[in-house]
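Issue 218. Parser rejects a valid record. Input:
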Amino acid sequence: MKTQSIKSFVVGTVVGGMLFSGVGFAASQMESIEVNVNPVKFLFNGDEVETERPNEIHNGREYVPTSLMYKGTVYVPVRFMSETAGLDVDWDNETKAVLVAEGDTSANGDASVLTEGEDYVVLEEEEAPSDVQEWVEANKKSEFTGTITVDGEVYVLIARGESQHSGYGVELNKVLQTEGQVTVEAAYTDPNEDEAYTQPITYPTVLIKLDKLTEDIQFKIEKSSSASVEASGSTSVETDTSDE
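Output the parser choked on:
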């Protein structure tokens, strides 16, 4: 049952009271409940917040409502509210905590966010050297995270494995760096139920080339709306194709 009436919900400058509404459910405590999709209007400092779709936002996998009503309380996505207020939000899987703060929210407080085009480049498979292309082909048909070093350059691969059609994908969120370590954060994206996909089997991947060499590369992959962000190490290969 959808509630069609539009209410005015003024966010203003006080956001903290709403950020954690509904947050804190451990996996073992989850239960199914009935809620109403209750569209509301969001005003931030007097300006209405517009979304790509009316009353919906994309969570990296699919479109979801910007608000739900349950027992007289309005629930909104933490990321939507935080980013509207100019805050950064992250998930700490170890402590099962939502991190909301100004600037970087990674567990490593001294981490810096690397810049695409300066610190790393996202590549299509055909743009990579032949050795890297062969490595991608050998690993993309199953879930895989790893690195390969070719001629002194580090290439990083995230592969989702065989997927039913082009509606499934992998989206790079950010690349963080601390002293001696790089963390690559990404999310699996799932099909939009309102769209038709005709392309057959696909192998979603993200391939990046890092500007700086590092021995320790970690991965945090958000696999689905029901699965936590998972951290994993990397499988490394080193290849030298220079002339002897």
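Fixed in the parser; the record now loads. Residues 112-239 form one domain.
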